[in-house]
């Protein structure tokens, strides 16, 4: 655009130069004599040639020069805009490469180097996003296959034991109670697997919104831990809580309760039997820091990076009785970030910790 404007200014100066020099300036007389001479060569008398010159050029000099200047201006504008149009075609080609998911690098003119770099950045970002979505979708599909396969096992057991109970009317009471207990256990597991299918569907459809209010963190954590007592007892786990009871949080207590439930469920799934789960909470500047820690197999660093991705499960969870849909930590991360907080995982020396930082309300003394 600057080049086009510059060319137009040059054309205007040339037009002014022609008007001033050739028509009104020092070259007026030579120009007039040349035109009259040309007319005479066509067979006119001198007076007729002079009259025709005045009629055509002298009386219409402004119109002629204006028309010439306008034509020259259009030509110069065309030259300038043709280059600009070429730039637009190059950019269009680059955008088309992005839409076509081409693996080739976008190359534009040197003048468009900043735009070239930006388009290549966008191309790589979109490529990475597509790759992540494809991996997530593949993990989801794999998980559904695993769950569908896992559904057969408890269902087959339930049918088998119920069939035995139905056929053996004179079965000893002790054996009958044993089969009923196994059937009930398998039926519960079947219900858990069905809930995981619903969890997968809900995650894709839900839009998490917050209903914020002020509450004490310690009270919330105690309520959540109380609900896990039967689970802790079943696996022989101890749970300790050391949380500053002055910490006030301004957030959605129901959503944050779900976060801690997911973290505790994850800790139960991957901790050693008869080990300890610890929950700590302290004031760190303007934030509250909460740590959920369990003793279990150390998670490799490359797997730690993927823990918060949806539908991601550690390999050993696929064959376990308590492996979930791989959504708990992804949902926890989303809820924490909606509260302008952060969550990260750390695993070393047989201990795995999830560290949460949440903005807090100043405590009331």
From TrEMBL:
CDD domains in alphabetical order: HisKA
Any single GO BP term: cellular response to phosphate starvation
EC number: 2.7.13.3
Primary location: membrane
rRNA-binding as UniProt keyword: no
Parts forming coiled coils: 112-143
Domain Histidine kinase: 146-362
Keyword Glycosyltransferase among record annotations: no
Gene3D superfamilies, A to Z: 1.10.287.130, Histidine kinase-like ATPase, C-terminal domain
Pfam families assigned to the protein according to its UniProt record, in alphabetical order: HATPase_c, HisKA
A GO term for molecular function: phosphoprotein phosphatase activity
Sorted UniProt keywords: ATP-binding, Coiled coil, Kinase, Membrane, Nucleotide-binding, Phosphoprotein, Transferase, Transmembrane, Transmembrane helix, Two-component regulatory system
Membrane-crossing segments per the record: 6-23, 62-81
GO cellular component assignments: plasma membrane
Cell compartment(s), UniProt: Membrane
PANTHER family: PHOSPHATE REGULON SENSOR PROTEIN PHOR
Name of the protein: histidine kinase
